[in-house]
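STRUCTURE:
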C-alpha cells in the first residue's frame, strides 16, 4: 500500500507510474443509534490527515434534511414517504459523487468518510417497501452498496452491551428506545451484510477503546500503521534538539530504507467560558497547508454505571474518543465516581466562529506546531508551543507516543532519546488546560 506522498509508510519507495490516478477510498461509518459515529469521524480524520491523506467527511443526509425542516414525514402518505426516501438517497449519492470528482481533480490521495451510506435506508422500512423502492428507481443493492464503498464500519449501538450509556439527548432526531435501537442496529448489520468488506465494532471495551478500534480497522484497510488498541499515550518533555534530530533523520534513510516523513500542523485551542482543570470545553482549529478543520471537545466526569442515576452524561457531544494528544488523559478511572473522558466532534467554520464569542476571556488562545510521524511500529506527535507557557522554557517541547497500555515502556527512537528531559505522562502541570492557563498568565 502506497502512502499519499509517493513513499510507502512501511515498505519503501512507491513504484506507481506518474500517470496512475491518485488513491481514492470511500468508507461508510454506520451502526445503530448512539454508537459513537460522530466522535469517530473526528478521530478518523485526525489519524488519516496525519498520514498525509486528504479527508472529506460527508454528514448524515437524514440529519441535513431534518435540520432544514424537511425531516422524515412520519404521518405522511406512502407516496410522500417514498418520495422522501428516494430524494434523500439521490442527494447522498450526488454528494458522494461530487466529493469523488473534487478528490480526483485535486490529484491527492483522498479518503471520503460517509456518516451512513445509501442502503441504511433499507433498515428503516419493510423489506417489501425497500424492494418496491429499488424497482421504482431501477436500482439494485449491488449498485447502491457493493460498488459505491470500499469499506463499511459498523459501530454497534450502546443499546447492545452498554445500555447505561444509551441516550437520546445528543441527537434531536433520535427517537428510539433501547429495545428499538438494539433491533435497528441488527437490521442495519443485515442490510450491509452482503458488502465484501464489513467490520463490526462492538462495545467490548470502553468508548475510548472502541473509537481507537475503528481507526485501527480503517488504518489496516488502507495499509497504514494502526493505532494501539487502548489509545493510551506516553508523554515526554524533550529539548529543542529533538526537532533538529527529526529533520536530520527525515533527510536520511529510516526504517526498512524508507525515509521518515513528518507532517506539520498548526493547532489552535480556545477554551470556552466556565472551563476548569477538571471539566472544560475547548474549540480547536487545525491548519494543514491551506486547509483548516474545526472541532469541539469537552472533558467531563462520566459516572460509573453503578453510581450513575442517568443513562448518560448530559453532554451535547455524543460519545467519548481518545483525544490525549489534544488534552489531558481521558482514561483516568475513579473507582467510586467514574472516569474522566473527553468527547470531540467536528464542527463547521460558522460554528467555530460563533463559539469563539464564548471564549474564556481570562485565557489566551493556545497554539501549537504539531509534527506527526511514524517510527517503527509507533505513532508520534511532537508539539511545540508557539507561546511560552508559564514554567516551560521556549526550548522545551512535548513528545507523545501511542502505547498499548499505560504500563508499556516504549523504546524511543535512538535519534530522539538523548533529547528527553523527563516523563510527563501523569504530570498535571502539562495538561493542555494547565499550559493554556499559564500561557495567559505569562503575558
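SEQUENCE:
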Amino acid at each position: 500500500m502506497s502512502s499519499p506522498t509517493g513513499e510507502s509508510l512501511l515498505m519503501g519507495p512507491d513504484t506507481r507510474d506518474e500517470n496512475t490516478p491518485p488513491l481514492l477510498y470511500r468508507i461508510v461509518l454506520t451502526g445503530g443509534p448512539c454508537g459513537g459515529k460522530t466522535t469517530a469521524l473526528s478521530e478518523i480524520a485526525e489519524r488519516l490527515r496525519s498520514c498525509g491523506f486528504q479527508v472529506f467527511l460527508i454528514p448524515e443526509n437524514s440529519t441535513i434534511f431534518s435540520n432544514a425542516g424537511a425531516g422524515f414525514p412520519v404521518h405522511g402518505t406512502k407516496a410522500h414517504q417514498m418520495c422522501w426516501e428516494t430524494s434523500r438517497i439521490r442527494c447522498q449519492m450526488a454528494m458522494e459523487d461530487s466529493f469523488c470528482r473534487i478528490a480526483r481533480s485535486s490529484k491527492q490521495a483522498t479518503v471520503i468518510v460517509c456518516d451512513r451510506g445509501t442502503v441504511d435506508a433499507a433498515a428503516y422500512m419493510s423489506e417489501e417497501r425497500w424492494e418496491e423502492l429499488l424497482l421504482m428507481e431501477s436500482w439494485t443493492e449491488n449498485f447502491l452498496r457493493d460498488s459505491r464503498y470500499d469499506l463499511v464500519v459498523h459501530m454497534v449501538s450502546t443499546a447492545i452491551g452498554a445500555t447505561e450509556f444509551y441516550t437520546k439527548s445528543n441527537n434531536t432526531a433520535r427517537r428510539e428506545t433501547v429495545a428499538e435501537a438494539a433491533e435497528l442496529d441488527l437490521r442495519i448489520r443485515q442490510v450491509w451484510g452482503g458488502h465484501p468488506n464489513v467490520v463490526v465494532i462492538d462495545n467490548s471495551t470502553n468508548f475510548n477503546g472502541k473509537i481507537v478500534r475503528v481507526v485501527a480497522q480503517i488504518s489496516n484497510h488502507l495499509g497504514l500503521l494502526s493505532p494501539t488498541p487502548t489509545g493510551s499515550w506516553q508523554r515526554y518533555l524533550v529539548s529543542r534538539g529533538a526537532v533538529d534530530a527529526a529533520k536530520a533523520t527525515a533527510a536520511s534513510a529510516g526504517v526498512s530504507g524508507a525515509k521518515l516523513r513528518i507532517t506539520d500542523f498548526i493547532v489552535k485551542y480556545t477554551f470556552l467560558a466556565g472551563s476548569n482543570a477538571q471539566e472544560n470545553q475547548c474549540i480547536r482549529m487545525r491548519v494543514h497547508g491551506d486547509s483548516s478543520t474545526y472541532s469541539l471537545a469537552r472533558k467531563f466526569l462520566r459516572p460509573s454505571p453503578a453510581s450513575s442515576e442517568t443513562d448518560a452524561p448530559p453532554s451535547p457531544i455524543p460519545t467519548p474518543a481518545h483525544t490525549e494528544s489534544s488534552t489531558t488523559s481521558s482514561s483516568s478511572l475513579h473507582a467510586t465516581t467514574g472516569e474522566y473522558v473527553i468527547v470531540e466532534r467536528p464542527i463547521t467554520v460558522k460554528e467555530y466562529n460563533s463559539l469563539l464569542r464564548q471564549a474564556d476571556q481570562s485565557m489566551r488562545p493556545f497554539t501549537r506546531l504539531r509534527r506527526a510521524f511514524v517510527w517503527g511500529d509507533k505513532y508520534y506527535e511532537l508539539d511545540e508551543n508557539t507561546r511560552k507557557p508559564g514554567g516551560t522554557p521556549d526550548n522545551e517541547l512535548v513528545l507523545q507516543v501511542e502505547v498499548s497500555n499505560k504500563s508499556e515502556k516504549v523504546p524511543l527512537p535512538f535519534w530522539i532519546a538523548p533529547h528527553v528531559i523527563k516523563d510527563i505522562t501523569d504530570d498535571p502541570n502539562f495538561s493542555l488546560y494547565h499550559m493554556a492557563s499559564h500561557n495567559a498568565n505569562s503575558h
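REMARK: Confidence is low (pLDDT under 50) at residues 1-18, 254-258, 305-336, 389-393.
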